[in-house]
Amino acid sequence: MASSVANLNRSNDTYLSANVFDLFSLKESVVVITGGARGIGLALGFAIAEAGGVPVMIDANGQPHEHFYILQKMCPKLKLFVSDVTDYEKLEKTFGEIVSEFGRIDGCITAAGVCPDQPFLERSPASVKRCFDINIAGTFFAAQLAARQMDKQAKQPSSSPSSSKGSIVMIASMAAHRASKGQFTSDYCASKGAVNSLAKALSVELAEKAIRVNTISPGYIMTDMTLAISDTRPGLAKVFVDDPPMKRMGDRTDLKGAAVYLLSDASAYMTGGELLITGGLHAGLYEEVA
Ligand SMILES: NC(=O)c1ccc[n+]([C@@H]2O[C@H](COP(=O)([O-])OP(=O)(O)OC[C@H]3O[C@@H](n4cnc5c(N)ncnc54)[C@H](O)[C@@H]3O)[C@@H](O)[C@H]2O)c1
């Protein structure tokens, strides 16, 4: 039976020796990133390497963006594993290969995603299913495979470089909270809502294993994905720049600190949370009224 008296740890001076730069360190941490061949996933790979960690990329596309090779120079251990997050058997094999080669998994960022843009009444079952498979099931499977390994490590004598046994960071979206102006992204919005709900459920279920689960929900961020959208629909470029109250589009730089924070001991007491990085757009629109 649970005791009615709390076993309170009365020491309150730990913070005196906890240097903030040490808290943000990812030294020796191995972090798997799905969708790491380009875009947000690749940029967060730079953040991890700069913080002392080792990023390991998984992507369905075996031909990474040229910036991947800059990262590889900085972090020679960097490797891209070609795998599809919707193919569970292949993905399980890929995680096995990663553990054989890198020995452990301390963090996982799920950034693989697609964003179909088509009116709701025209969406085909096959295309909707593909969006849900990649954005929801792919996130679920990657998180599950990472958490299994983190749990295994926690039971081994060699402890993790971090005080938490693992940290999972899912890339959701502002689209989980509001419709994307001028875009037809019904299934995408639904999928990102599901990612946030999944993270909340896992944060509770995995807390006793000291595995933390949080999400980052970016607003409009300049990547090849949003560049391609702007090329085909120039009107949207104006929305991307003018709608955020901060009156600019986000850059991937704006996400780097958040990812390192959530992966590191700096966020040791944060789980089930969401960092909305939108230039203020999730909070509202600023429009001058005469
Ligand atoms: N760019 C933005 O403005 C923005 C805003 C909010 C959320 N997001 C989210 O951030 C994530 C990354 O977006 P991005 O802009 O970098 O896109 P991106 O298209 O540049 O990169 C996505 C990567 O995921 C990979 N991928 C797609 N399907 C896959 C699969 N089945 N298996 C493995 N890899 C797969 C792609 O090959 C690609 O390298 C996505 O989940 C996206 O929804 C992006």
TrEMBL record:
| One GO biological process term | abscisic acid biosynthetic process
Give one Pfam family, short name only. Answer: adh_short_C2
InterPro entries the UniProt entry points to: NAD(P)-bd_dom_sf, Sc_DH/Rdtase_CS, SDR_fam
Family, as annotated: Belongs to the short-chain dehydrogenases/reductases (SDR) family.
Top-level taxon of origin: Eukaryota
Q: Keywords, A to Z?
A: NADP, Oxidoreductase
* Name of the protein: Putative short-chain dehydrogenase
Residues in the signal sequence: none
User: Mind listing the GO molecular function terms for this protein?
Assistant: oxidoreductase activity, acting on NAD(P)H, oxygen as acceptor; oxidoreductase activity, acting on the CH-OH group of donors, NAD or NADP as acceptor
Task: List the source organism.
Answer: Hyaloscypha variabilis (strain UAMH 11265 / GT02V1 / F) (Meliniomyces variabilis)
